[in-house]
Design goal:
The protein contains 13 helices and 2 strands; from the N terminus they run αααααβαααααβααα. The protein is mainly alpha-helical. The N and C termini lie far apart (41 Å).
């Protein structure tokens, strides 16, 4: 049971990442590869500030600002320099590898002996249950804030930018600013996921973000499949399904390991699983 509880905690920690991918991919239609770097950036900033004994109320805003700056840089390169969004993300992600390594000063930082968020706040005597309630609170607050934002006039303009950029531009909306803001928000959420994961697993590694965009993309695709099946138009339900997709994705990986699949094949299983999710809605079975 603890094995699947750990997978549930991983899924909840990845919820912020999935929401970030949802904003960049599904609202703005931008394949943002900055995710790999901003996720690690969030974990690196967390680890370094923890080792310098900084309080949580300072670390959390610092992580959000760092991730937001990374996303904004991608948006500026894409909109102002007219560089392809995919290439812009790759350039920033590549640069962030050196930035992260420079900030951390080493390839790995252990956090087990440091006072993290999950051992400073005591809601339950059981460590896993304590982590569950803290992360659940984070997810609820993040979802509420994002849902509220997307329902405001600014959020509607963001959504319209992704749906019909020329139309919303004709109404006087600065679409470049919308894209930069959207990518900044998406990567701030991604960095927040790195903040939670690094403290949950007890260490930060320079390579922890490699391929992490697949986990977020898989979560969003699961949510998109459910949204299309049930023809959901509600923003709130869409966000909840994105979070559910993150949990389902991690549960599938946990089941894969539980049935005895070699851990070395986990990345292969992940790729195959995402491929199945992508292709499933497009497969037409003969009657």
């Amino acid at each position: 049971m603890d094995f699947y509880l750990t997978a549930l905690l991983q899924g909840l920690c990845f919820s912020a990442l999935a929401l970030g991918i949802f904003i960049s991919m599904k609202i703005f239609n931008i394949p943002d590869i900055t995710t790999d770097g901003s996720y690690t950036l969030g974990a690196v900033v967390t680890a370094v500030m923890l080792t310098h004994h900084q309080p949580t109320y300072i670390i959390l805003p610092a992580v959000i600002i760092a991730g937001g700056l990374a996303g904004a840089l991608t948006g500026i390169i894409h909109t102002k320099l007219k560089i392809n969004a995919l290439l812009a993300g790759i350039l920033v992600m590549t640069a962030l590898w050196s930035v992260n390594l420079t900030i951390m000063g080493t390839s790995n930082l252990p956090l087990n002996s440091l006072p993290t968020l999950f051992n400073l706040v005591h809601i339950s005597a059981d460590p896993n249950h304590n982590t569950f309630w803290i992360v659940s609170g984070f997810v609820i607050i993040i979802t509420a804030l994002i849902g509220y934002l997307l329902k405001t006039d600014f959020g509607i303009a963001m959504r319209a930018t992704g749906n019909s950029e020329s139309m919303i531009r004709s109404l006087g909306v600065n679409t470049d600013r919308m894209k930069i803001t959207g990518l900044a928000l998406a990567n701030a959420l991604t960095a927040l996921s790195g903040y939670l994961i690094s403290q949950n697993q007890g260490f930060t590694d320079i390579s922890m973000g490699i391929g992490i965009v697949i986990a977020g993309l898989g979560s969003v695709i699961i949510a998109e499949t459910l949204i299309n099946w049930f023809r959901i138009t509600s923003v709130w339900l869409s966000l909840i399904l994105v979070i559910a997709g993150a949990i389902i994705f991690q549960m599938v990986l946990a089941i894969t390991l539980d049935i005895g699949v070699d851990a070395n094949l986990l990345k292969l299983v992940t790729a195959v699983f995402v491929l199945l999710i992508v292709s499933l809605p497009r497969i037409k079975f003969a009657k």
